[in-house]
Task: structure prediction
Amino acid sequence: MKVAFQGEIGAYSESAVYSFFGPSVEVKPCKNLSDVFESVKKEETLYGVVPIENSIEGSVNQTYDLFLEYDLKVCGEIVLKIAHCLIAHPGTQLNSIKTVYSHPQALAQCRKFLEQLGFRLISTFDTAGSVRMIKDERLMDAAAVASERAAEIYSMNTLAKEIGDTSNNYTRFFVLSKQDSSYSGEDKTSIIFSVKSIPGALHHVLKEFAVRNINLTKIESRPTKRTPWEYNFYLDFEGHRNEEKCREALKSIKDKTLFVKILGSYKAAIEESKFNF
Result:
């Protein structure tokens, strides 16, 4: 079995893959998030793992947008604790660092630490990829923000650990497939929908879940990109789409929305504490 993820070997997304599928799974690194979706669509891999939101910096908007472009399902959920490190070449001292590279969300999550040291910050496509870049290009006055595991993989030195602005830093990932999961009893369901721009339209949709005592765990709006100030809504709720009350709720909102797309039902992630890589 092969699983696609975005980033280089040593990325947090790779750790998320192993936490869900186990250490023996074969992984396929991809440069872009769209490449992960494409890999699953073309059946180059059975599954893909993509970040959907971070507890500090919020949603990964590109992932949400890609669900509209691809007819893939969410079949699993992963919550991974993020512990950022400052990584540089062996022998490089902290006071010699001028530039720090990493994914923009990682840089934002370490803003206080990085700003107080006055580093120049440059965004890249990946955390582990930044470590590999400064190693391959022999950037002796540069560092990267990534996991301690990435430092070990690329034989680099960890100058500082736990540099994030808060220790309560988690990233939520979705597992992509062409099929969602069967009922487990501890499920969540994710959908996308849009409503007419009229008073109470969103309320009427959400009411269908409330009257059936279905707990909503997340709602997110994203521009449709077709008409200014029009939005799609991304909604997560507790329960499997094949449960009677969930089926009823999904059926009832069809005539209250412009469209509804069910992304999938999946077993809710267990707490992160077991996911240490």
User: Anything to note?
Assistant: The first strand starts at residue 2 and ends at 6. The first helix runs from residue 12 to 21. DSSP finds nine helices and 15 strands in the chain. The chain has three domains: 2-82+169-180, 85-161, 187-267.
